[in-house]
Design brief:
5 strands, 239 residues, 12% strand, alpha+beta, 3-stranded antiparallel sheet
């Protein structure tokens, strides 16, 4: 199947190149036979990246900022890898670049673990779709993409049935942080926030200001109205 597709693509691009009779401009070709390969692979990559970011991640997280970052990161990685493959840049350099992007951290805010995992999946999809060659059949390529989507969907929506979100609150009624008053703490927080709380953790305590960092956990599907953002465990710890 790969050989047939490659043959058809080669014949089509050769005919287009002959018809257009395009030369060079400032030392660069205006057209290359790999252009249609780029379009085909880009379409395939964008299709699966949108399914992962928009279809699997966003319905549960509702984070447009990360959705924007995931899609653009996927596109940039795809074009970088495709260019590296085009000019036959060494495998060591390619793996080094992949490692750099794999451990990237956005400096504007700390990225939660779940978002880091989705970022790694998005990067992986881009690398697979851009780097695959004639040694990798279309069947294997499509299976790899669908397998990533399928496994992610099962873990996100079937295995982890309920997503427990977190939020950090600066709490001023210091007497309620005592173990014997935890039931009062939960009642007070639920009344003031309107959130049905599943459990509570006490963080940093400041007796000088009579405040404490309280981490509340809640299930998004149990809330009646309102949009509650999951602040993520890393953001809470660094607060």
């Amino acid at each position: 199947m790969w050989e047939l597709t490659t043959q058809l693509t080669t014949e089509l691009t050769t005919n287009i190149g002959a018809i257009l009779n395009i030369g060079e401009f400032f030392g660069m070709k205006l057209y290359d036979d790999d252009f249609l390969k780029l379009i085909l692979r880009l379409g395939l990559n964008v299709f699966f990246a949108v399914i992962i970011a928009r279809g699997l991640y966003y319905p549960n997280a509702k984070r447009k900022d990360y959705l924007f970052s995931f899609l653009l990161t996927n596109l940039v990685i795809f074009f970088i890898i495709f260019t590296m493959k085009k000019y036959e840049i060494g495998t060591g350099i390619g793996l080094g670049l992949f490692a750099i992007f794999g451990i990237i951290r956005f400096r504007t805010s700390t990225m939660p673990v779940k978002e880091m995992t989705y970022l790694f999946i998005i990067i992986g999809i881009a690398v697979i779709n851009a780097l695959s060659s004639s040694k990798f059949s279309w069947t294997e390529l499509l299976f790899t993409n669908f397998a990533l989507i399928g496994i992610t969907y099962i873990i996100e929506n079937k295995w982890l049935l309920r997503h427990e979100a977190r939020k950090v609150i600066t709490y001023e009624k210091i007497e309620n942080i005592k173990t014997k008053n935890h039931h009062l703490l939960k009642i007070d927080l639920e009344e003031r926030t309107g959130i049905k709380i599943s459990r509570i953790e006490i963080g940093r305590i400041n007796f000088l200001n009579d405040t404490a960092k309280v981490i509340i956990y809640f299930y998004l599907e149990d809330q009646e109205g309102g949009i509650y953002q999951d602040e993520g465990i890393l953001e809470i710890r660094n607060d």
